[in-house]
Amino acid sequence: MENVWTTKFNKAQFIVGPMVDQSELPFRLLCRQYGAQLCYSPMLHAGIFVKDAKYRKENLVTCESDRPLVVQFCANDPDTFLEAAKLAEPYCDAIDLNLGCPQTIAKRGHYGAFLEDEWDLLRSMISKVKNELTIPITCKVRIFKDMEKSINYAKMLEQSGCSLLAVHGRVKEQKGVLTGLANWQYIKAIKENVKIPVVANGNIQSLVDVYRCLEETGVEGVMSAEGVLHNPALFRAIHPPVWKIAEDYLQLVEQYPCALSIARGHLFKFFHISLSIEENNDLRSLLAKANARSQLHQFVELMKERFKENYGLEDLYIDMPMSTLPLPPYFCQPHFRPPPPPIKPPGSEETSKKRPIENDSEANEAKRLAHEAKLIAKKEAKEAAGRRLPLCVLCPNPKGVKCDYNLCRTCCRNKVYKLVLDCVGHKLLFKTRKRINEEKNKEKANELVSTLTQPSTNSSPVLTCE
């Protein structure tokens, strides 16, 4: 069996994991500059990828220096998965099937970790792509609570044609405030029972964690997602100043533009400790409201100047060797989640407490009388009106009191939507929104024209999946 880790991934040990709207091209290139050897694309929806050319073009963007690259899909149909994989095949070195996403949207869409019990479907999807593609197929999975089932699961994926397994050492219920620690012993057991390369994921906050995981589990490589989001230089064992990382990232965004919301999200991750300081609330608000790349650059400059002033910094670009935390807030450092809340056994004093019953009868009586008085006043007001509310001119429902067209809300919405009008009374502003969108599109068009007329500074061409 071909060892994809050797032939396709150049024995990569330092790997950036797939993240929705977070592992886009500029961020992947930033991580590669700081030591990452293999990157995954964001998770792409196979069904939308097949049907929507715009979605393909916007979400699968790469370049010559963005290799080796694994493109990850979520899917639940063999034919759709194969068609999406064929479209992405020319732009990457392997196709990955996401079997690890634990979010509610994955449950609704029936993909990710919510396919982990449908082994026949997984065999069908993996074997179909394995037989018809020229590049390998890999899988990113979570473990089961039962270790033996986790091992059998990995063996089944290997036998179906999976060439590499990325194992996240958490069960699908470990998410949000219940995330907790990943279990490396499960990853070690899986590695010892399969012949294909295995990548470990979970509990990676520093390069020390990477080497400790390699030693304890025996895997070929280690994947980080949240760790590199907050410190993209994790694999270099340094803590760079946050503005240095931000400037490097924004320079790549200028070269390979991405959605403004994605770039803004990365800056929030880089500056997550800095922006938690109360004195920086004004700059946090500035970043949140930024609607142009120039404002992102402005935010970084203002943060840099503020830190220089507050901390008396002389050399703004010195890197801190990876060391024991905490560090000053102007260095990139990992984000540590609080531990999960303790689970209280049913029937314990904490779980069986009820809201105390008020024994003050006078207070209760006063509340009751006040409530009755309110109801009586409301009834009298209706009777004093002596008439029903005016009716909508198009249906028997009451009209909106402030409607510009004497209609109920439903009829008003239909009218203003079809004729592109505004109704201030119902707060339906279709005309205003259309004008705003037209102005935004005009600005984007002008920006695109100015970009195209400037000489290109790209060192390598951008490739997009049409």
From TrEMBL:
It comes from the Eukaryota. Pfam families: Dus (PF01207). Residues 16-260 form the DUS-like FMN-binding domain. It is an enzyme of class 1 (oxidoreductase). It catalyses: 5,6-dihydrouridine(16) in tRNA + NADP(+) = uridine(16) in tRNA + NADPH + H(+); 5,6-dihydrouridine(16) in tRNA + NAD(+) = uridine(16) in tRNA + NADH + H(+); 5,6-dihydrouridine(17) in tRNA + NADP(+) = uridine(17) in tRNA + NADPH + H(+); 5,6-dihydrouridine(17) in tRNA + NAD(+) = uridine(17) in tRNA + NADH + H(+). Its cofactor is FMN. Residues 341-365 are annotated as: Disordered. Keywords: Flavoprotein, FMN, NAD, NADP, Oxidoreductase, tRNA processing. PROSITE patterns: UPF0034 (PS01136). One of its GO terms (molecular function) is flavin adenine dinucleotide binding. Its EC number is 1.3.1.88. Residues 350-365 have a biased composition (Basic and acidic residues). Belongs to the Dus family. Dus1 subfamily. This is tRNA-dihydrouridine(16/17) synthase [NAD(P)(+)]. The gene is 107362503.
